[in-house]
Write a structure and sequence with these properties.
The chain is of the alpha+beta class. The protein is built from two helices and five strands, in the order E-E-H-E-E-H-E. It has helices at residues 30-39, 67-80, and strands at 3-6, 10-13, 46-52, 62-64, 84-90. A hairpin with a 3-residue loop joins strand 1 and strand 2. The longest helix has 14 residues, at 67-80. Residues 139-150 have low confidence and may be disordered.
Length: 150
């Protein structure tokens, strides 16, 4: 796995190099960059970082986390006619234990409200009858549209 190391500066260790050419800067977005990275079989959670190819890594690396930063990357490359380096930082998955709250009126196994039983039955309500039906009327052109109110 690739990572950043500090040792008399900043180094990117263990990464692969892939060259991608022909990207239109007018259509570059964060998700486009992420898609390019995923095409190289990077899986899981990642952070993307970038810098100009002629810049030193220390003090010039920027987080690529949204479209605003993707626009800054594209503008940088276009204004300077320079390639950019994108670095992939793998984020280890952290699992979170979720505890269900069980209380009065809750199903003990699932932590969901109990349903069923006669107290939960809703009596039928009057939905409508023939008096509520509006008869169809032929409609001619746009000027013939009639709106009826009850």
């Amino acid at each position: 796995m690739s990572r950043f190391e500090r040792n008399r500066g900043l180094k990117y260790v263990g990464g692969e190099i892939h060259v991608v050419k022909g990207i239109d800067p007018d259509f570059l977005s964060f998700f486009e960059a992420l898609g390019i990275v995923k095409d190289f079989k990077y899986v899981g959670d990642v952070k993307l970082w970038w810098k100009g190819s002629k810049q030193k890594l220390l003090n010039n690396i920027r987080l690529l986390s949204d479209d605003k930063e993707a626009l800054a990357l594209a503008k940088y490359a276009e204004d300077r006619n320079e390639e950019v380096d994108i670095f992939v930082q793998h984020i280890p998955c952290q699992y979170e234990v979720v505890h269900f709250i069980v209380g009065a009126g809750m199903d003990e196994e699932l932590g969901q409200p109990e349903v069923g039983g006669e107290d939960d039955v809703v009596p039928e309500a009057h939905v409508g009858g023939e008096a509520d039906v509006v008869p169809e009327a032929p409609v001619g052109g746009e000027a013939d549209v009639v709106v009826r109110q009850k």
